[in-house]
Every structure is written in structure tokens, then in C-alpha cells.
Amino acid sequence: MTEPLRVVIADDQPLLRAGFRMILNADGIDVVAEATDGTEAVDAVERTRPDVVLMDIRMPELDGLEATRRILTGATDEPRVIMLTTFDLDHYVYAALTAGASGFLLKDVTPEHLVAAVRMVRAGDALLAPAITRRLVERFAHRDPDPPTSHRDLATLTRREIEVLQLLARGLSNAELAGHLRLSEATVKSHVARILAKLGLRDRVQAVVLAYTTGLVNPATPT
Question: Where is the HTH luxR-type domain (predicted)?
Fold first, then answer.
């Protein structure tokens, strides 16, 4: 029997934390800790070693973006982080992605979507569609004077892996990649997994960000 998925909820609104906890517990997901600010969130993650963190962006003392950076910098067995906000603002999404988050949710998310999102990022998938990530990177990446992925060495990738990464950054799903490259989906998944491993990335969203911030894909080029 597999162990239940473990989650930390960080938000300064008690009612939201209680509601999310009830939703997740009802689906067999274990909420191992709650935090009211970013400092408490960092401490809770160090203490409980969760699989996923639901992290509010706007919190007192230490905001969710900085807390996410601290959690995901130099840690072993890093959790996946999903950012929470009441504001659907692109610059928050981009900041969350560059901080290392695996996804982004509005706080009025439905119970079904919340549960699906937690399980999705735990499985290693990205919560944002590559096409949405592409739009964000096209709009904001040029404003970042020191993009966090600029040091990655793309030379470690094979020619085929470079091709897969370029197409992935254009928003193609695994099925679409398989059709375009005339490969099986299983082979595509293997290529994507190797790309992430070689470049030290957590998920497909980070791969899309890397492709644009390193210039591997040109935003001006039609998709």
C-alpha cells in the first residue's frame, strides 16, 4: 500500500487553510502542517518533508515567492510548490515559475481542480500548460537581467533532445510531440525525462522557461 501524499498549506487566512485541508483530507491526502507566513512555511517544510506545498504569494513577514526560493534552493528531496493567489496577474505567475514553483492556482479553485493539481505536480507534471508558460516568458523574460536558467549547459543534450525541447517550448503535448516526430509517446516521455535530468529541471514548465531565457527558442518565431 502506497503512503498518502503529504501536503503543507501556507496561507494567512485560517478559513482558506481549513477549507483546503478538508478537501484534501477527504480525498486521502494528508495535510501534515499549516503555516501563516513564509517563515513558518520554510520551517514546516524542513520539519515535515512534504511532497507538495500550497503556498500563498502574499503573506506577512516573508512572502510566498521568497519562501519558495528558500525551500527549493539547495534542498535535498525538494517538494513541489503550487503558488496560491487571489489575483490572476501574469507577473506573479512568471515570478513564481522563476522561483521554482511547479504550478499556480487561484484561491477560488474548485475542490476537484485542487485535488487534481496536487496529484499532478506530485507526479512530476506541470500545472500550467506549456502554451501559457510560453506567453508569460515571451512577455516577461526579457525584463530579467539575470534569468535563473542562463547557466544551464544545453550542450549536454543530443540533437534529438534539442528538437524535443524546442517543440515542447512551443506548447506541444506528448501526443503532439509523438505525432510530429513520428515516435511513440513512451519514447517522447523518455526524451523529456532525460532532458529534465540533464538540465537539472523539476518539470516541463521550467524547461519552457529555460528554452526562452537561453535563446534556444525565439519568441518572435511563429509557432
Answer: 150-215
Q: Which of helix, strand or coil describes residue 80?
A: strand
pTM of the model: 0.73
Q: Label residues 16-43 b or e (16+ Cβ within 10 Å = b).
A: bbeebbebbeebebebbbbbbbbbbbbe
183-208 average pLDDT score: 87
Enter the C-alpha cell of residue 96: 513564481
Q: What is the Cα–Cα distance from 151 to 147, expressed in whole angstroms?
A: 9
User: What order of strands is seen across the sheet that includes strand 6-10?
Assistant: 30-35, 6-10, 52-56, 80-85, 103-106
Instruction: List the Cα angle 81/47/105 in 5-degree steps.
Output: 20
**Domains of the chain, start order:** 6-128 (3.40.50.2300), 134-213 (1.10.10.10)
β-bridge partners, 48: none
Give Cα 164 to chain centroid, integer Å: 19
